[in-house]
Amino acid sequence: MAVLYRIHKQRFAVNEVVFAQDTPPLGLYIVQSGHISLHRDVQTVAGATRISLGTLGPGSMFGELALIDNRLRSASAIAKTASTCLVLPKRMFEDECRHLKPWLMTIIRLLALRLRETTALLDQQIAQVAKTGGLMVLPSDPDTRRELRSLMDDLQSQAQSELDAQD
Description:
Strand content: 25-35%
Structural class: alpha+beta
Distance between the termini: 18 Å
Order of helices and strands: EEEEEEHEEHHH
């Protein structure tokens, strides 16, 4: 049986939308070069408030949440600079997940649900403080940042190996 989907490279121009909040997921992205800015639009009493979620560089992954729980995108991604990403298509992601033990996939989906719930709570808090114009964001734990970087490096290496094997 022929594979109808595969990891591929996609290039984005400066300010090009990679995907928009509240749209269906088409794939998971791994930044190879350039920088991708993530943001979330939150409705407040003062109108829409754009919350920056950060900028991702080479080796960073994004777009996984909507693939895990098969819901709409929770944020938007825009190329801050000319960028190239490896794209793992939704169908390929789903096929790979079928090989996981059901209990493991249940845990992963539970974590995704908790993240969605936390995001909803934060949206509510942002809406409440929008009038004051102040919100403090605390930096991540250094150990967590190191572990995340290691996981992202591993993922990029595995995706690149998969891409190389397809050639």
